[in-house]
Design brief:
mainly alpha, 7 helices, 0% strand, DUF6179, DUF6179 domain-containing protein
Length: 162
């Protein structure tokens, strides 16, 4: 009897496979939660807990942003901070590869851990980008193409500085 239940549970899991096409790359976490809820891989309480945890991260980020002098900021700034939080969370969850792995991670771990791991991934990518840019700059072609020269000499350094 126990083996039959395990087999039936396994069949249910296989049937619930999330198609990556259903997930938006630029809003991976949000679409993962929506699809997970719709497909029955997450329940509304689990999604609510994730939302609460993300709001806690936002609250702490706002406190750091204002140097704990205030808790009020413009809605535009709050939106930008939340977008950056979700960018880091997206980076981590996306690198798990399989959407089901991401959902299982979300179910078993606090979003603070997810966020911190995502920040690490983003920092590592930025460092790798800086190293690659240094290599590009060292091997820059000597051509009279303004857009090429401006991109390498001005635009990319400005982007990396910000």
């Amino acid at each position: 009897m126990g083996l039959e239940k395990q087999h039936n549970d396994l069949l249910l899991v296989k049937q619930k496979k999330i198609n990556n096409i259903q997930l938006l790359r630029n809003q991976y976490t949000i679409s993962l939660l929506n699809v997970g809820l719709r497909e029955g891989l997450l329940n509304s309480q689990e999604v609510y807990e994730v939302q609460i945890q993300l709001m806690q991260i936002l609250k702490e980020s706002i406190r750091r942003y204002t140097r704990e002098e205030s808790s009020s900021i413009s809605s535009d700034v709050a939106e930008e901070i939340l977008t950056s939080i979700l960018y880091a969370v997206d980076a981590f969850l996306f690198q798990l590869g399989d959407p089901e792995n991401a959902i299982n991670f979300v179910k078993k771990n606090n979003m603070e851990i997810t966020y911190e791991q995502g920040v690490k991934i983003v920092k590592d990518c930025l460092e790798e980008t800086r190293a690659l840019f240094k290599e590009i700059r060292n091997n820059k072609l000597d051509v009279a193409v303004d857009s090429y020269n401006i991109t390498i000499d001005e635009s990319i350094p400005l982007f990396l500085k910000k």
